[in-house]
Design goal:
Blueprint lengths: L1 H34 L4 H8 L2 E6 L2 E6 H26 L6 H25 L17 H9 L7 H25 L6 H19 L5 H18 L5 H7 L10 H17 L6 H4 L1 H17 L2 H25 L6 H5 L4 H27 L11 H10 L4 H11 L3 H29 L13
Antiparallel strand pairs: 1-2
Helix pairs in contact: 1-5, 1-13, 3-6, 3-9, 3-13, 4-6, 4-15, 5-6, 7-8, 8-9, 10-12, 15-16, 15-18, 16-18, 17-18
């Protein structure tokens, strides 16, 4: 029963990732077409459209693409933070034995690509791009895996999900620690004070939308002013959201029984509770207790997934992937930056993930998931080379030179497409056919 429930949750999650990845790809293709069409100037003007306000004669604004990358992407990172916390608290990263395989594999899949990139770009402005090939795009990787449907063992789905979330956690740490130029300590202190206040409001279950929105915006603004990338505010806020029920089940049932008895003793109709304060109070107590039994983090994650999958990420792709493909852009391709990224994602990811997973299993720290073979694990390791969203995001933080950013994005496209195709081919031949049961092979 537990496995069926886990499978249902994963299937719903993977379905949203599959649909979202299709929309994301369409947005990226649209961006490239627009950037290389007669409407290219209009596309650039739209991306750099100033949106802001005047206060006391001073102009405060960000361009539209920056509102998407620094503002809306904070919601994406908030969802990422919720996923990370859920897996650490109650999911596949909640114990050392369960976490060992995906976490160590994710570390190998992040470290080796960075080393490969640095080998090609050991110095100069290009050296700062070492974080680009470290990241895996969870939407595309899980979306491609979901295309195989019931042929995919539940253990393989769980492994890739936990791997991608551990990979996201490392990407967040890298962005916060290594792609922050200068820190404003006062703004950072203010952010943590406001974050603590927001945490208190959340724990007290206060239903004041204006207060909540004001605190959320204030935390985001302080993180933005601190010099740390504003999207980290989303992760920090996610960490204070509970992913477990905030009421004990026994207390929940006690409240239900007590107020149910009161309501049954009286004649309850659709109209009676309007004037009967006792009935209204009983209904409110049942409603509040039920809300506490549903973790806020789980509810927010489910509610925000469609928003970030079908609006935020496509908007990010629309403004971040519009690379101009002309003779001058392609003249120097491939170069050291692009080779470091392509080999990092294509070679570093699969060798790092598969190699470190093999070490963990062979040393006895963990074991292969049930029903999963080494060949299938290799196929998933190749899918880890789909960098796309996170890699593009980091490329814009790593480089200030527009040409380097364009080279990086083209390399990310090439590597992600190759990793997706190769991973799909490998899994197509190595996944069991429908109705076939395959035992895990620890050899």
């Amino acid at each position: 029963m537990k496995e069926n429930r886990q499978k249902s949750l994963l299937d719903n999650f993977l379905h949203s990732q599959t649909s979202g990845s299709i929309v994301l790809m369409l947005a990226a293709v649209a961006a490239v077409i627009l950037a290389n069409s007669p409407w290219a100037d209009l596309y650039q003007k739209l991306a750099h459209l100033k949106i802001g306000t005047y206060i006391n004669g001073t102009e405060y604004y960000l361009s539209l693409d920056h509102w998407v990358k620094d503002g809306l992407m904070s919601i994406f990172f908030f969802v990422v933070g919720l996923e990370i916390k859920r897996e650490i608290v109650v999911g596949e990263l909640s114990t050392v034995k369960k976490a060992a395989l995906p976490v160590v594999a994710a570390f190998g899949g992040a470290a080796l690509p960075a080393i490969i990139y640095f080998a090609f770009n050991p110095g100069g402005a290009a050296a700062s791009g070492w974080g680009i090939p470290m990241a895996t795009d969870i939407a595309f990787a899980l979306g491609l895996l979901a295309l195989f449907g019931s042929r995919v063992p539940i253990g393989l789905k769980v492994f890739l999900t936990a791997l991608a979330i551990a990979d996201d956690l490392m990407a967040v740490v890298v962005i916060a620690l290594f792609y922050t130029a200068k820190i404003n300590i006062l703004a950072l202190i203010a952010a943590f004070v406001l974050l603590a206040l927001l945490g208190f409001v959340v724990r007290q279950n206060m239903r004041r939308p204006v207060l909540m929105f004001s605190l959320i915006f204030a935390v985001w603004l302080c993180v933005f002013l601190s010099g740390i990338h504003a999207t980290i505010a989303g992760v920090l806020m996610a960490l204070i959201i509970p992913v477990r029920a905030t009421i004990d089940p026994e207390k929940f049932f006690t409240i239900l029984r007590r107020h149910e008895t009161l309501l049954q003793r009286q004649t309850l109709t659709r109209d009676s509770m309007v004037d009967d304060k006792a009935q209204r109070h009983a209904i409110e107590q049942i409603y509040m207790a039920s809300e506490k039994m549903i973790p806020a983090g789980i509810r927010l994650e489910e509610d925000l997934h469609p928003i970030q999958a079908f609006m935020i990420l496509p908007l990010f792709a629309l403004f971040a992937t519009g690379v101009t493909l002309d003779s001058s852009t392609l003249a120097g391709f491939p170069n050291m930056v692009s080779m470091g990224i392509i080999l990092g994602l294509m070679l570093g990811k699969q060798v790092g993930i598969f190699g470190f997973a093999w070490l963990v299993v062979k040393t006895g720290l963990s074991e292969l998931p049930s029903g999963v073979t080494w060949g299938q694990l290799w196929g998933v390791s190749i899918l880890g080379g789909i960098g796309f969203t996170m890699s593009i995001f980091i490329s814009e933080l790593a480089f200030s030179d527009a040409r380097m950013i364009e080279d990086a994005k083209i390399a990310i496209f090439v590597a992600s497409i190759l990793a997706g195709i190769l991973g799909w081919v490998v899994l197509h031949f190595l996944l069991p056919r429908k109705g076939t049961v395959v035992e895990s092979a620890d050899h």
